[in-house]
Amino acid sequence: MSNRNDEIKISKFLSLVLRHQPETIGIELDENGWTEIDVLIEKSAKKGILINHHLLKHIVDTNSKKRFAINEAGNKIRANQGHSVEVELGYTAQEPPELLYHGTGQKSVEEIMRSGLDKRSRHHVHLSSDIKTAIDVGSRHGKPFVFEVLAGQMHRDKFEFFLSENKVWLTSHVPVRYLKEKH
User: Fold this and answer.
1) Contact criterion met (CB below 8 Å) for 49 and 13
2) The domain 4-79: what is its CATH number?
3) How far apart are CA 43 and CA 16, in angstroms?
4) Could you report the per-residue pLDDT of 52-82, keeping only the tens digit for each?
């Protein structure tokens, strides 16, 4: 089996090619973000990244953030969310909890309080259902800051929410009026 550092390297590589730059290795994602596992393995090897079916399944199954999914037939893989390339993940709108959370770095708070939460180069704004996850996300961007998102009110005001396979709540934009400074 591979060591943990190899698994992290491959997971980051998969995030790159399945979420942002499939052209890096010459793969194509279908309209729902899926690509053939055999093609991924073959094209990755040509770039010096050695993956086999067993290792790929292990990474998908053990990824703490559940970033990837393998289809039921076991022949395709995709990222669950976070794409900057155009894909339709096939999620249906759902009613969110009354409150959701968004973690960011302290340095971004002022801008967010002016414009709200924007998806930027991604397809959606990512929200979590618990404060701890939001703090962890915010920590990636410096001193963490957590916004409370009035998701229930947004939903009643006709904003759509989706729940990804790895339990990240997604929406297209959060206007300032639905944000509260949590911490």
Assistant:
1) yes
2) 1.10.10.970
3) 14
4) 999 999 988 887 778 898 998 999 999 887 7
